[in-house]
């Protein structure tokens, strides 16, 4: 039984086509997305600890404002401050009744509270702005990782499709050979029966 050589089929080079399409599409992408795709092509890592990088870049003032916002926004601060206010009022109203340094309308206490609020509000806002910046950086990193994962998944799909096409071609070739073998056996049977 003669084995016929494989007949080359006119296949389109999918990798070359994909590369050509990718290059034309790559030029249309925004700069940040183009950087993601180029990192994927160069097989460089995209995922990183953005919050750690962000924390390392903070100045002393930024760290201080974060710490003040953390303390100022806690139940411990609220309860301690309520205790301080109650102690101030009791001390000035009952203990130092006649010689109180801040008698009943508590004007000095009002001034202190106003100053505290005037200073605490911008510090908390600075901390919130920095947290929003950190969240944006984290979201950008998450997006980059998701794009990379999508590209990896597309690459795996391409590999699976290429493998499936190769196997299908091999199966068709085997089926063709089997048909030839069946034809040859039928001819032998016909020749031996006559």
Automatic annotation (TrEMBL):
Signal peptide (residue range): none
Organism domain of life: Bacteria
Residue stretches spanning the membrane: 68-91, 103-126
Keywords, ordered alphabetically: Membrane, Transmembrane, Transmembrane helix
InterPro entries (UniProt xref): DUF1003
PANTHER family: INTEGRAL MEMBRANE PROTEIN-RELATED, MEMBRANE PROTEIN
Name by which UniProt lists this protein: DUF1003 domain-containing protein
Native source organism of the sequence: Oleiagrimonas citrea
């Amino acid at each position: 039984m003669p084995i016929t050589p494989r007949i080359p089929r006119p296949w389109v080079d999918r990798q070359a086509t994909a590369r050509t399409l990718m290059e034309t599409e790559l030029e249309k992408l925004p700069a940040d997305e183009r950087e993601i795709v180029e990192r994927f092509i160069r097989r460089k890592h995209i995922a990183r600890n953005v919050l750690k990088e962000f924390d390392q870049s903070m100045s002393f003032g930024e760290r201080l404002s974060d710490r003040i916002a953390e303390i100022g926004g806690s139940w411990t601060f609220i309860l301690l401050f309520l205790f301080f206010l109650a102690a101030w009022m009791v001390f000035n109203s009952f203990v130092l009744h006649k010689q109180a340094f801040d008698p009943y309308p508590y004007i000095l206490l009002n001034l202190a509270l106003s100053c505290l609020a005037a200073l605490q509000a911008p510090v908390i806002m600075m901390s919130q702005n920095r947290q929003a910046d950190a969240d944006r950086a984290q979201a950008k990193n998450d997006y980059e990782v998701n794009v990379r994962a999508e590209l990896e998944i597309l690459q795996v799909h391409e590999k699976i499709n290429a493998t499936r096409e190769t196997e299908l071609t091999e199966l068709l070739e085997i089926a063709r050979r089997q048909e030839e073998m069946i034809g040859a056996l039928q001819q032998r049977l016909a020749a031996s029966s006559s």
